[in-house]
Write a structure and sequence with these properties.
Elements lengths: L2 H52 L24 E2 L8 H13 L41 H4 L18 H18 L5 E2 L1 H9 L9 E7 H18 L1 E6 L1 E6 L12 H4 L13 E11 L2 E4 L3 E4 H4 L3 E5 L2 E5 L3 H7 L15
Parallel strand pairs: 3-6
Antiparallel strand pairs: 1-9, 2-3, 4-5, 5-6, 6-7, 7-8, 9-10
Protein backbone atom coordinates (compact mmCIF):
# COMPACT_ATOMS: atom_id res chain seq x y z
CA UNK A 1 0.00 0.00 0.00
CA UNK A 2 1.40 3.42 -0.89
CA UNK A 3 2.55 5.59 1.98
CA UNK A 4 -0.01 8.28 1.12
CA UNK A 5 -2.83 5.75 1.26
CA UNK A 6 -1.55 4.39 4.59
CA UNK A 7 -1.45 7.88 6.05
CA UNK A 8 -4.98 8.59 4.80
CA UNK A 9 -6.25 5.35 6.34
CA UNK A 10 -4.67 6.17 9.69
CA UNK A 11 -6.28 9.60 9.69
CA UNK A 12 -9.69 8.08 8.97
CA UNK A 13 -9.26 5.46 11.73
CA UNK A 14 -8.17 8.13 14.20
CA UNK A 15 -11.22 10.30 13.46
CA UNK A 16 -13.51 7.28 13.80
CA UNK A 17 -11.89 6.14 17.05
CA UNK A 18 -12.02 9.52 18.85
CA UNK A 19 -15.71 9.24 19.91
CA UNK A 20 -15.12 5.68 21.18
CA UNK A 21 -12.07 6.76 23.14
CA UNK A 22 -14.00 9.68 24.67
CA UNK A 23 -16.89 7.36 25.56
CA UNK A 24 -14.52 4.97 27.32
CA UNK A 25 -12.92 7.81 29.26
CA UNK A 26 -16.34 9.12 30.37
CA UNK A 27 -17.43 5.59 31.36
CA UNK A 28 -14.35 4.98 33.51
CA UNK A 29 -14.70 8.42 35.10
CA UNK A 30 -18.36 7.64 35.93
CA UNK A 31 -17.45 4.29 37.46
CA UNK A 32 -14.78 5.90 39.61
CA UNK A 33 -17.21 8.54 40.95
CA UNK A 34 -19.94 5.96 41.49
CA UNK A 35 -17.56 3.84 43.53
CA UNK A 36 -16.57 6.88 45.56
CA UNK A 37 -20.26 7.69 46.19
CA UNK A 38 -20.99 4.13 47.30
CA UNK A 39 -18.10 4.18 49.74
CA UNK A 40 -19.35 7.48 51.12
CA UNK A 41 -22.88 6.09 51.42
CA UNK A 42 -21.68 3.00 53.24
CA UNK A 43 -19.65 5.18 55.56
CA UNK A 44 -22.68 7.39 56.30
CA UNK A 45 -24.88 4.37 56.98
CA UNK A 46 -22.25 2.90 59.28
CA UNK A 47 -21.98 6.21 61.13
CA UNK A 48 -25.77 6.41 61.53
CA UNK A 49 -25.96 2.84 62.80
CA UNK A 50 -23.17 3.54 65.25
CA UNK A 51 -24.95 6.62 66.55
CA UNK A 52 -28.20 4.66 66.90
CA UNK A 53 -26.47 1.89 68.80
CA UNK A 54 -24.86 4.32 71.19
CA UNK A 55 -28.18 6.00 72.04
CA UNK A 56 -30.21 2.86 72.79
CA UNK A 57 -32.07 3.62 75.99
CA UNK A 58 -32.42 0.21 77.59
CA UNK A 59 -33.11 -3.46 77.03
CA UNK A 60 -35.69 -4.93 79.29
CA UNK A 61 -37.41 -8.29 78.99
CA UNK A 62 -40.77 -8.38 80.72
CA UNK A 63 -42.27 -11.78 81.41
CA UNK A 64 -46.04 -11.62 81.81
CA UNK A 65 -48.18 -14.64 82.55
CA UNK A 66 -51.57 -13.05 81.84
CA UNK A 67 -52.96 -13.61 78.35
CA UNK A 68 -54.35 -10.09 78.40
CA UNK A 69 -50.90 -8.53 78.43
CA UNK A 70 -48.06 -8.55 75.95
CA UNK A 71 -44.31 -8.74 76.37
CA UNK A 72 -41.98 -6.14 74.93
CA UNK A 73 -38.34 -7.15 74.59
CA UNK A 74 -36.63 -3.90 73.77
CA UNK A 75 -37.24 -0.20 74.13
CA UNK A 76 -36.91 1.87 70.93
CA UNK A 77 -33.79 3.71 69.91
CA UNK A 78 -33.59 7.44 70.38
CA UNK A 79 -31.70 9.43 67.76
CA UNK A 80 -30.07 12.80 68.17
CA UNK A 81 -32.05 15.65 66.63
CA UNK A 82 -29.60 17.42 64.34
CA UNK A 83 -31.64 18.28 61.23
CA UNK A 84 -32.78 21.87 60.75
CA UNK A 85 -35.43 20.79 58.26
CA UNK A 86 -39.02 20.60 59.53
CA UNK A 87 -39.39 16.99 60.54
CA UNK A 88 -42.85 16.46 59.07
CA UNK A 89 -42.87 18.86 56.14
CA UNK A 90 -42.88 16.18 53.43
CA UNK A 91 -45.62 14.22 55.19
CA UNK A 92 -47.72 17.38 55.65
CA UNK A 93 -47.48 18.20 51.95
CA UNK A 94 -48.50 14.64 51.00
CA UNK A 95 -51.39 14.67 53.48
CA UNK A 96 -52.65 17.98 52.09
CA UNK A 97 -52.60 16.54 48.56
CA UNK A 98 -54.51 13.47 49.74
CA UNK A 99 -57.20 15.68 51.25
CA UNK A 100 -57.47 17.65 48.01
CA UNK A 101 -57.67 14.54 45.84
CA UNK A 102 -60.18 12.75 48.11
CA UNK A 103 -62.83 15.37 48.95
CA UNK A 104 -65.51 14.18 51.39
CA UNK A 105 -69.15 15.23 51.05
CA UNK A 106 -70.05 16.44 54.54
CA UNK A 107 -73.47 17.88 53.66
CA UNK A 108 -76.19 16.30 55.75
CA UNK A 109 -73.78 14.48 58.03
CA UNK A 110 -75.37 15.95 61.16
CA UNK A 111 -78.96 16.20 59.90
CA UNK A 112 -80.32 12.85 61.04
CA UNK A 113 -78.75 12.03 64.40
CA UNK A 114 -76.26 13.82 66.59
CA UNK A 115 -75.70 14.36 70.32
CA UNK A 116 -77.92 17.09 71.75
CA UNK A 117 -74.87 18.93 73.08
CA UNK A 118 -72.97 19.11 69.77
CA UNK A 119 -72.69 22.58 68.21
CA UNK A 120 -71.60 23.29 64.68
CA UNK A 121 -68.55 25.22 63.52
CA UNK A 122 -65.55 26.59 65.35
CA UNK A 123 -65.51 27.86 68.92
CA UNK A 124 -64.34 31.51 69.26
CA UNK A 125 -64.68 31.42 73.07
CA UNK A 126 -61.60 29.17 73.41
CA UNK A 127 -62.64 27.99 76.86
CA UNK A 128 -64.17 24.82 78.30
CA UNK A 129 -67.45 25.50 76.49
CA UNK A 130 -65.63 24.46 73.31
CA UNK A 131 -66.08 20.81 74.30
CA UNK A 132 -69.56 21.21 72.83
CA UNK A 133 -67.96 21.99 69.47
CA UNK A 134 -65.83 18.83 69.49
CA UNK A 135 -67.11 16.22 67.03
CA UNK A 136 -67.19 12.73 68.61
CA UNK A 137 -65.91 9.71 66.72
CA UNK A 138 -66.77 6.90 69.17
CA UNK A 139 -64.14 4.82 67.42
CA UNK A 140 -62.94 1.24 67.64
CA UNK A 141 -60.25 0.35 70.20
CA UNK A 142 -59.93 -3.40 69.64
CA UNK A 143 -56.55 -5.09 69.45
CA UNK A 144 -57.60 -6.92 66.27
CA UNK A 145 -58.28 -3.76 64.27
CA UNK A 146 -56.34 -1.03 66.02
CA UNK A 147 -52.99 -2.36 67.27
CA UNK A 148 -51.13 -0.12 64.77
CA UNK A 149 -53.86 2.21 63.50
CA UNK A 150 -52.80 5.26 61.48
CA UNK A 151 -54.48 8.33 60.01
CA UNK A 152 -54.37 6.96 56.45
CA UNK A 153 -57.15 4.51 57.32
CA UNK A 154 -59.52 7.48 57.54
CA UNK A 155 -59.77 7.56 53.75
CA UNK A 156 -61.40 4.12 53.75
CA UNK A 157 -65.19 3.66 54.15
CA UNK A 158 -66.25 3.56 57.78
CA UNK A 159 -66.65 0.07 59.21
CA UNK A 160 -69.67 -0.61 61.40
CA UNK A 161 -67.57 -0.22 64.55
CA UNK A 162 -66.12 3.04 63.26
CA UNK A 163 -62.57 3.90 62.41
CA UNK A 164 -60.03 3.29 65.13
CA UNK A 165 -59.94 6.04 67.73
CA UNK A 166 -56.15 5.93 67.39
CA UNK A 167 -56.42 6.75 63.67
CA UNK A 168 -58.19 10.01 64.49
CA UNK A 169 -55.64 10.74 67.21
CA UNK A 170 -52.77 10.15 64.77
CA UNK A 171 -54.24 12.73 62.39
CA UNK A 172 -54.65 15.27 65.21
CA UNK A 173 -51.11 14.63 66.41
CA UNK A 174 -49.57 15.22 62.98
CA UNK A 175 -51.60 18.32 62.16
CA UNK A 176 -51.09 19.98 65.55
CA UNK A 177 -47.40 19.15 65.91
CA UNK A 178 -46.64 20.37 62.40
CA UNK A 179 -48.42 23.70 62.89
CA UNK A 180 -46.68 24.15 66.24
CA UNK A 181 -43.29 23.43 64.69
CA UNK A 182 -43.89 26.10 62.04
CA UNK A 183 -44.24 28.59 64.90
CA UNK A 184 -41.05 27.35 66.64
CA UNK A 185 -42.96 25.97 69.62
CA UNK A 186 -40.68 22.92 69.89
CA UNK A 187 -43.48 20.30 70.10
CA UNK A 188 -42.31 17.02 71.64
CA UNK A 189 -44.11 13.75 72.34
CA UNK A 190 -44.88 13.45 76.03
CA UNK A 191 -47.07 11.53 78.50
CA UNK A 192 -49.13 8.66 77.05
CA UNK A 193 -48.13 9.42 73.46
CA UNK A 194 -44.45 9.15 74.35
CA UNK A 195 -45.20 5.96 76.27
CA UNK A 196 -46.91 4.38 73.24
CA UNK A 197 -44.02 5.34 70.97
CA UNK A 198 -41.41 4.20 73.49
CA UNK A 199 -43.05 0.85 74.19
CA UNK A 200 -44.62 -0.30 70.91
CA UNK A 201 -43.99 2.44 68.34
CA UNK A 202 -47.76 3.04 68.09
CA UNK A 203 -50.51 5.17 69.58
CA UNK A 204 -52.10 3.39 72.54
CA UNK A 205 -55.30 2.08 71.01
CA UNK A 206 -57.62 2.83 73.95
CA UNK A 207 -56.19 6.20 75.00
CA UNK A 208 -58.44 9.26 74.90
CA UNK A 209 -55.91 11.74 73.59
CA UNK A 210 -52.46 12.54 72.26
CA UNK A 211 -49.97 14.62 74.24
CA UNK A 212 -47.41 17.25 73.24
CA UNK A 213 -44.94 19.30 75.26
CA UNK A 214 -44.16 22.87 74.14
CA UNK A 215 -42.22 25.98 75.09
CA UNK A 216 -44.46 28.31 77.13
CA UNK A 217 -42.49 31.48 76.32
CA UNK A 218 -42.87 30.96 72.60
CA UNK A 219 -46.50 29.84 72.94
CA UNK A 220 -47.72 33.08 74.53
CA UNK A 221 -46.42 34.96 71.52
CA UNK A 222 -47.75 32.55 68.90
CA UNK A 223 -51.06 31.37 70.38
CA UNK A 224 -53.34 33.44 68.13
CA UNK A 225 -51.46 32.37 65.01
CA UNK A 226 -51.71 28.73 66.09
CA UNK A 227 -55.45 29.04 66.79
CA UNK A 228 -56.02 30.59 63.36
CA UNK A 229 -53.95 27.93 61.59
CA UNK A 230 -55.75 25.09 63.38
CA UNK A 231 -59.17 26.62 62.77
CA UNK A 232 -58.38 26.74 59.06
CA UNK A 233 -57.73 22.97 59.21
CA UNK A 234 -60.98 22.24 61.08
CA UNK A 235 -59.80 22.21 64.71
CA UNK A 236 -60.64 24.08 67.91
CA UNK A 237 -57.91 25.33 70.25
CA UNK A 238 -59.27 25.97 73.75
CA UNK A 239 -58.15 26.33 77.35
CA UNK A 240 -59.34 24.15 80.21
CA UNK A 241 -56.51 24.16 82.72
CA UNK A 242 -54.27 23.14 79.82
CA UNK A 243 -54.63 24.00 76.13
CA UNK A 244 -56.47 21.37 74.13
CA UNK A 245 -57.30 20.74 70.48
CA UNK A 246 -60.26 18.85 69.02
CA UNK A 247 -61.97 18.38 65.64
CA UNK A 248 -64.91 20.61 64.76
CA UNK A 249 -67.67 20.14 62.17
CA UNK A 250 -65.67 22.02 59.51
CA UNK A 251 -62.95 19.37 59.30
CA UNK A 252 -62.54 18.02 55.75
CA UNK A 253 -62.76 14.38 56.94
CA UNK A 254 -65.66 14.84 59.33
CA UNK A 255 -67.99 12.79 57.09
CA UNK A 256 -65.70 9.80 57.51
CA UNK A 257 -65.20 10.28 61.25
CA UNK A 258 -68.69 11.02 62.58
CA UNK A 259 -71.60 8.60 62.16
CA UNK A 260 -74.96 9.52 63.65
CA UNK A 261 -76.21 6.11 64.73
CA UNK A 262 -72.96 5.30 66.48
CA UNK A 263 -72.25 8.75 67.90
CA UNK A 264 -75.77 9.91 68.89
CA UNK A 265 -75.22 8.98 72.55
CA UNK A 266 -71.62 10.14 72.74
CA UNK A 267 -70.46 11.89 75.90
CA UNK A 268 -68.98 15.37 75.66
CA UNK A 269 -65.57 16.24 77.07
CA UNK A 270 -62.96 13.84 78.38
CA UNK A 271 -65.25 12.04 80.85
CA UNK A 272 -66.09 9.57 78.10
CA UNK A 273 -63.83 8.17 75.41
CA UNK A 274 -65.88 9.43 72.48
CA UNK A 275 -64.04 12.65 71.62
CA UNK A 276 -60.51 12.53 70.21
CA UNK A 277 -58.34 15.46 71.27
CA UNK A 278 -54.81 16.65 71.97
CA UNK A 279 -53.46 17.86 75.32
CA UNK A 280 -50.72 20.50 75.14
CA UNK A 281 -48.42 20.67 78.18
CA UNK A 282 -45.97 23.53 78.55
CA UNK A 283 -42.53 23.74 80.06
CA UNK A 284 -40.91 26.86 81.48
CA UNK A 285 -37.46 27.69 82.85
CA UNK A 286 -36.89 27.91 86.60
CA UNK A 287 -33.14 28.35 86.26
CA UNK A 288 -30.31 27.23 83.99
CA UNK A 289 -30.50 23.65 85.26
CA UNK A 290 -34.20 23.15 86.00
CA UNK A 291 -37.46 23.22 84.04
CA UNK A 292 -41.05 23.22 85.24
CA UNK A 293 -43.17 20.74 83.25
CA UNK A 294 -46.92 21.29 83.48
CA UNK A 295 -48.71 18.62 85.58
CA UNK A 296 -45.42 16.80 86.19
CA UNK A 297 -43.32 19.20 88.22
CA UNK A 298 -39.64 20.07 88.20
CA UNK A 299 -37.30 18.21 85.89
CA UNK A 300 -33.63 18.63 85.09
CA UNK A 301 -32.85 20.60 81.95
CA UNK A 302 -30.72 17.66 80.75
CA UNK A 303 -33.78 15.36 81.00
CA UNK A 304 -35.58 17.43 78.35
CA UNK A 305 -32.81 18.77 76.12
CA UNK A 306 -31.29 18.21 73.69
CA UNK A 307 -34.40 16.94 71.94
CA UNK A 308 -34.26 13.45 70.50
CA UNK A 309 -36.19 11.67 67.76
CA UNK A 310 -38.34 8.61 68.34
CA UNK A 311 -40.34 6.53 65.90
CA UNK A 312 -44.12 6.37 66.04
CA UNK A 313 -45.88 4.39 63.30
CA UNK A 314 -42.60 4.22 61.34
CA UNK A 315 -42.09 7.99 61.34
CA UNK A 316 -39.73 10.16 63.39
CA UNK A 317 -41.10 12.60 65.96
CA UNK A 318 -39.32 14.90 68.38
CA UNK A 319 -39.36 13.98 72.04
CA UNK A 320 -37.47 14.70 75.24
CA UNK A 321 -33.90 13.61 75.83
CA UNK A 322 -34.58 11.09 78.62
CA UNK A 323 -38.01 9.42 78.54
CA UNK A 324 -37.14 7.19 81.50
CA UNK A 325 -36.68 10.25 83.71
CA UNK A 326 -40.11 11.54 82.68
CA UNK A 327 -41.79 8.18 83.35
CA UNK A 328 -40.20 8.12 86.78
CA UNK A 329 -41.24 11.71 87.58
CA UNK A 330 -44.80 10.97 86.39
CA UNK A 331 -44.93 7.73 88.40
CA UNK A 332 -45.72 5.47 85.45
CA UNK A 333 -45.47 1.86 86.69
CA UNK A 334 -44.38 -1.01 84.45
CA UNK A 335 -43.97 1.18 81.38
CA UNK A 336 -42.88 -1.78 79.25
CA UNK A 337 -46.08 -3.74 79.92
CA UNK A 338 -49.18 -3.01 77.86
CA UNK A 339 -52.52 -3.67 79.52
CA UNK A 340 -55.83 -4.29 77.80
CA UNK A 341 -57.84 -2.14 80.17
CA UNK A 342 -57.27 1.14 81.92
CA UNK A 343 -56.04 4.50 80.75
CA UNK A 344 -52.43 3.48 80.07
Amino acid sequence: MPAVAQKSLLVKLSVTAIPWILSLLIFFQYQRRLRSFELCSFSCVAHERASMASTKTLKQVVEVSSENKISVEQAPRLLSSTSEERLHHQDAVMWSKLLESNPQNSSGVFDLKKPAWLKMGSCPARDSSCWNHCVPSTGDTSRTNCAAASKYELFRPQPRSGHCHASVLHMILDDVSYEMSLLNLQPMLIAGTLLGAYRNGTIIRWTRDVDLLYNLTSFDQAREKLATALERLGYNLFLEGIWRVCINSNHPLVANIFEGNRCANAIAGYSGRDVAYADLYHFSHINANTLQVQETGEMRFDDIFPMKRIQLLSKDYYTISKPEAYFLASKYPDVMVEKDVGYR
